Amino acid sequence: MKWLHRLWHTPRRTWLRRAMFQVHLWTGVGIGLYAAIIGLTGSALVFRTEIESALAPQIFRPGPVTTPLPLDTVLEHALQGHEKQSVMGIDGLDDMDGPAIVYLKTSFTYAWRCR
Question: What are the boundaries of each domain within the chain?
């Protein structure tokens, strides 16, 4: 009965409340760090092209093209010297003025202007 009276009138002094506070605190810190990492990596995926062009601008600034190239020619140029590689994806096809970016299954990124 004394324990129940103490729990009811001074709950901050019980060991159970202090233990639950620590569990709640460190669980919240862990979940918060996890959410922050998920948010940062998701943002990096969304802005991948912008980040890559900021880190390696020489790749994303192709020389002037007088006549736009068809997509087949662009893929031939991208795969030239990398016959064992395959195309992972192509970005920039919706932008008529910018380069089309061909992603191969390597660490290299090639930018060619096609149209």
Answer: 2-46, 55-112
